[in-house]
Structures are given as structure tokens and as C-alpha cells.
Specification:
Largest sheet: 7 strands, mixed
Oligomer: single chain
Number of helices: 16
Distance between the termini: 60 Å
Length: about 500
């Protein structure tokens, strides 16, 4: 039996999982890291802490399974995307804390960048709007605010990367010859990579004032980059690198155009495989690279993100005290037959795809004397399903393709009431994967492909299995009537924050 390791470096924690040839979890370890919030809108991580946590979880998981480095056929990396790290080439010392994807400190810079041609000035080349979300403006901010950083970057003394780049550099030697690379999926989230050439765009680099010397080499998502030199994984091929949502798409075996997955966590990330050409979005979505295997052409995806999904349940628990634990929300929502006309739009900090309304704020509408806590709980769950439909409808308009089913993963998929309602409101089956660790599994699959543990995507497709499928059971006229009401509720959330 051959084993694959996967480093899953997320926003709140780092995990290491070991999978066998059947894609089953053999061992897993997890450690959280600190969330640093120096002022409102700023979110930072300590890159050194993340690297130390990574080494610790590798040791724990391997000890748990009684495995040595030589027992692993390969290791893959998947990571929180857009989070930006800049460090010294000679020492490995970060020049500042990592600026996290959620951080909005680059708001003024992004407004300035948008003046010449609007927020979509780079969209045709990058698939992205100019937004605080992406790495390029974060890198520009660090170079502007760390004394001497711009000059050091121009001299080739500094290195930039998203968290995957930082980890692979240390895994393969750090200051002693570590590989300075990223993959096409992470590079496609920087606002600096051209989707058509799969390389850094020289014109955008000039506009941002980014020295080419600071940027990593862009590589495929599945390829042997080199061997790990760090003690915990010494000699193991480092053979995969994908951003977390693309890794989940890969772990869900969505290898064909038209297949889609949704990850339900704090927010939701819905990706639709669109084939070997980027599909531009005119309906508020992002065009991104899904993966690239070796020298094969890349696969592309449309992506839509929902800011608040599971976080709405946490709000019911922590702010309103309606439930003591998040798992209780399903029982409370089942206490009523329907939402009683109540709709909850959780636009706590604006709305993401497909609306992109930063002026929106959360609203609960349709309240009557009849409504009680059960209706509000149900409305909170239904909001996640409605927001998912918003994104899916935008994907259909952009691509002309309606997925035959939606593959789902993440913490909320254990809520069976939500999953049934999701199938009902979409009108397509919702399929929960048998292996819930789809993000780490995607990194393990990609690494295993690179070293020949699996021959091709067909083998991986045969490994994928469903745990449960929910079929739509709601009459179409009722589905559309409920959705029209949701759209009315969304409109009520607009314009609450005045510039």
C-alpha cells in the first residue's frame, strides 16, 4: 500500500492528512494558528508560526499512523488563497506578517487602480476585478509600507508568495536552495497572472510597480517539483500545489465541463468546471484556473463566493442566543413546516457574488406576529441555499451550462434539512461525497498522479463515491415563487451603508 500526504493550510488552522491508494484517510492532525487583527479591516497571520504548525502536524499524523517519510509516495500542498507573504531570500525572515485574503487595507489602493478603466480593467486578462481580495494589491501595500522593501525587491533580495509558495520554499530547503514556485491556480488569484499565457502579465506588473524578481515561477498543479529536505518529510517528492477551492473541486472528481461543487463553511465557494478555455463572466463571477496536470492544457472554472453561510448559524448562536450549539439549528428549524414568510439576507458586510454590493447590510423581512425563533432559524438555513442558487444562476448565464447535479462538502453538509432544501431550490440533485476531506484529498490525488500512484483521471473518477443524494421534491411553481420572494428580500438589503 502506498500513501500520499497532504498539507492543508487553511485560514484558521493547518492540517496534515495521509491517504491510502483508495483515497481513504489513514491519519490526520490539526493545529490552529493566531488571527492577528491590529485594527478594523486588517487580518494578519504569522508566517513563521504557520510553518512551525505545518511541521508539527506532519510529525503528529505520521506518528499516529506509524509512518516514516519513506513510506509516503508523495506530498501535496493546498492552501488558503490570496494571503500574501514577503520574505528575505537569504534568511527566510518575513518582512511583515502575512496579509490575509479577508484583509481590506488595500481599499484605497484598489480605488486608485480602478480609476483609469473601472474595476474590470484587468478582467479580460486575469478573470478578476480589481478588489482587496487579491494578492497583487496586498503585495504592493507591503512594498509601500515596509521601509526599503521596494528597493530590496528590485535587487532580488525579497521573495513574494501566497502560502503555498512559502511552504514549498521551506519544504525544499528554504535559504539553502528552496524552490520559489507557485501553481497556476494560486497564481490566477493574484490579479497578476494572464489567464491566456499562464504567466505574469508584464503590463499589469508595470501598473502595480511589482519587480519581476520578487515573483515565483508558475508551475502546473500536479508535477514533481523537487524533494523535501525538511526532517519530517526528507526525500519525499513534493508533487502537487493547488488553492483550497480548486483542490476541493479536484477532490470531488469534477473533471468534466459542466460539473460543479459547493463547499459550505463560514461562507460558500461554488466552482463550475468550464473546460479548457476561460469563460469570461458578465454576471459577477470570477474566472479562474481549476487545475493543470503536467504538460496538459489547463482546465478553467467559474467561481462564485458567498460571504456568509455557516457564519449566519454562528450569529444565531453567539449574538441572538437562539441555540447553544450550531448543530442545534437543524432541530429548531424542523420545528416549523416552512419559513412562515420570513427571509433572512445575511449581508453582514455586504454581498459577494453575484451582486458585489458593499452597501448592503443584513435584513430579516416578512415578520408577522406568527413568526417565532423556529422561522428565523429556518430562514437562516434557507439563506445559504438561496445564495447558492444566485451564484448557480449566474454561472448558467455565463456558461450556458446547467450542472446535472451539485457535489457538496464542508461542515454544513451534515445538515440534512439544508441539503434537501438546497436540492429543492436548485431543482437538481445534491450529492454529498463519501470522503468529506475533499480539499486535502484533491492535493493528495494531484500528488499521486504526478508520481504514478494513479495512472489517470479515470482511475480517480472510479474512486469517488457518494454518501447520500438528495433529489428535488418541491413543485417547480412553488420553487420559483419562493425564489422570487428571496430576490425581493435581497433588494431590501441594498443601500443601507451610505458612502
Amino acid at each position: 500500500m502506498r500513501y500520499m500526504g497532504a498539507i492543508d493550510q487553511g485560514t484558521t488552522s493547518t492540517r496534515f492528512l495521509v491517504f491510502d491508494e483508495r483515497g481513504r484517510v489513514v491519519a490526520a492532525a490539526q493545529e490552529e494558528h493566531h488571527q492577528i487583527t491590529p485594527q478594523p479591516g486588517w487580518v494578519e497571520h504569522d508566517p513563521v508560526e504557520i510553518w512551525e504548525r505545518t511541521r508539527a502536524v506532519v510529525r503528529k499524523a505520521c506518528a499516529q499512523a506509524g509512518l516514516r517519510p519513506q513510506d509516503l509516495a508523495a506530498v501535496g500542498v493546498t492552501n488558503q488563497r490570496e494571503t500574501t507573504v514577503v520574505w528575505e531570500r537569504a534568511s527566510g525572515r518575513p518582512v511583515a506578517n502575512a496579509v490575509v485574503w479577508q484583509d481590506t487595507r488595500t481599499d484605497a489602493l484598489c480605488r486608485e487602480l480602478s480609476r483609469p478603466g473601472g474595476v474590470d480593467r484587468f478582467r479580460e486578462r486575469t478573470g478578476l476585478p480589481v478588489a482587496t481580495y487579491f494578492s497583487g494589491p496586498k503585495l504592493r501595500w507591503i512594498l509601500d509600507h515596509v521601509p526599503g522593501a521596494q528597493q530590496a525587491a528590485e535587487r532580488g533580495e525579497l521573495l513574494f508568495g501566497t502560502v503555498d509558495t512559502w511552504l514549498v520554499w521551506w519544504l525544499t530547503g528554504g535559504p539553502a536552495g528552496g524552490l520559489h514556485i507557485t501553481d497556476v491556480t494560486n497564481a490566477s488569484r493574484t490579479l497578476m497572472m494572464n489567464l491566456h499565457t499562464l504567466n505574469w502579465d508584464p503590463e499589469i506588473l508595470r501598473e502595480l510597480g511589482i519587480p519581476r524578481a520578487v515573483l515565483p515561477q508558475i508551475r502546473p498543479s500536479s508535477e514533481v517539483y523537487g524533494e523535501a529536505t525538511v526532517e519530517e518529510l526528507r526525500g519525499v517528492p513534493v508533487a502537487a500545489d493547488l488553492g483550497d477551492q480548486q483542490a476541493a473541486l479536484f477532490g470531488q472528481a469534477c473533471f468534466e465541463p459542466g460539473q460543479a461543487k459547493n463547499t459550505y463553511g463560514t461562507g460558500c465557494f461554488l466552482l463550475l468546471h468550464t473546460g479548457d478555455r476561460p469563460v469570461p463572466s458578465r454576471h459577477g463571477l470570477l474566472t479562474t484556473v481549476a487545475y493543470r496536470l503536467g504538460t496538459s492544457p489547463p482546465a478553467y472554472a467559474l467561481e462564485g463566493s458567498v460571504a456568509i453561510a455557516g457564519a449566519a448559524v454562528q450569529w444565531l448562536r453567539d449574538n441572538l442566543g437562539l441555540i447553544r450549539a450550531s448543530a442545534e439549528v437543524e432541530e429548531l428549524a424542523r420545528a416549523v413546516e416552512d419559513n412562515g414568510g420570513v427571509y433572512f439576507v445575511p449581508a453582514f458586510s455586504g454581498l459577494f457574488a453575484p451582486y458585489w454590493r458593499s452597501d448592503a447590510r443584513g435584513v430579516i423581512v416578512g415578520l408577522t406576529r406568527y413568526a417565532h425563533r423556529g422561522h428565523i432559524a429556518r430562514a437562516a438555513l434557507e439563506a445559504t441555499a438561496y445564495q447558492t442558487r444566485d451564484v448557480l444562476e449566474a454561472m448558467v448565464q455565463d456558461s450556458g451550462v446547467r450542472p446535472p447535479a451539485l457535489r457538496v462538502d464542508g461542515g454544513m453538509v451534515r445538515n440534512e434539512l439544508l441539503m434537501q432544501f438546497q436540492a429543492d431550490v436548485l431543482g437538481i440533485p445534491v450529492v454529498r461525497a463519501a470522503v468529506q476531506e475533499t480539499t486535502a484529498l484533491g492535493a493528495a490525488y494531484a500528488a499521486g498522479l504526478a508520481v504514478g500512484v494513479w495512472k489517470d483521471l479515470r482511475e480517480l473518477r472510479e474512486l469517488w463515491a457518494s454518501d447520500r443524494t438528495w433529489q428535488p421534491a418541491m413543485p417547480p411553481d412553488r420553487r420559483e415563487a419562493l425564489y422570487r420572494r428571496w430576490l425581493q428580500a435581497v433588494e431590501r438589503s441594498f443601500g443601507w451603508l451610505e458612502e
